[in-house]
Predict the structure.
Amino acid sequence: MSHHIVEVRDLRHSYPDGTEALRGISFTIHHGESVAVIGANGAGKSTLLLHLNGYLTPTDGNVRIGDTPVIKGTLPEVRRTVGMVFQDPDDQLFMPTVADDVAFGPLNLGLPAGEVERRVTDSLALVGAGHLREKPPYRLSGGEKKRVAIATVLSMSPDILVMDEPTAGLDPFARRQLMGLLREFRHTKIFTSHDLDMVLELCERVIVLREGVVAADGPPREIFRNAGLLSSCRLEPPLSMQGCPICRSSG
Ligand SMILES: Nc1ncnc2c1ncn2[C@@H]1O[C@H](COP(=O)(O)OP(=O)(O)OP(=O)(O)O)[C@@H](O)[C@H]1O
């Protein structure tokens, strides 16, 4: 079985305060798929993503990356395969400079200095953050932090890219640049987003969460045309499908 396959079976997660965030989730994502996980605030998207590389442990059910179960003993292997961009970049940036943060993962892989430097330069260039390399991360703006957080993951060359709200806080130019980057990324990508126009443009599949369960799983256009489903999940179609308010034509 390809190690790029993500399998989630009957996944349940309750937080220590008793909140049942995931209440039995199952799906399989195949190599090369581009999948968005969408849903209202609190639907369980971040909780789900945090299981894909073992940052959270299931209360019940399991996650596999190919043949490898995501369990304590396999975390180093899983995290080499699955690169995770967190919702809050402050959870990802902790070194004195941007360059140190982007180098951290490749250095931990034991790569030679020249290769680490190449990866740092390339990853920062990909997110348009080369000019920030000597800055301390806490001095960056929110959008700059987000771009650097993405670079820290790209520098690891993951086979599966998992991103929690990658365009949140980005200006329109940076958003466009990131979308171009994601389009180029040929391996599996899974992300959450409230930016449904981006989802429509980048994904061939959407998983809709509602109160910790999968409410729908299918092609974006089909899902975004289902008004009943969207309103029951407190969602609205992407702006590009809402039509012109004057002539009522739709995109
Ligand atoms: N550490 C925690 N302790 C207790 N409950 C939590 C914790 N983190 C999240 N929750 C709860 O779990 C549920 C799912 O939260 P989650 O962050 O996964 O939602 P989300 O779909 O990512 O939302 P958003 O769109 O706002 O980012 C919510 O009810 C939330 O209040």
Q: What stands out?
A: The chain has a mean pLDDT of 92.
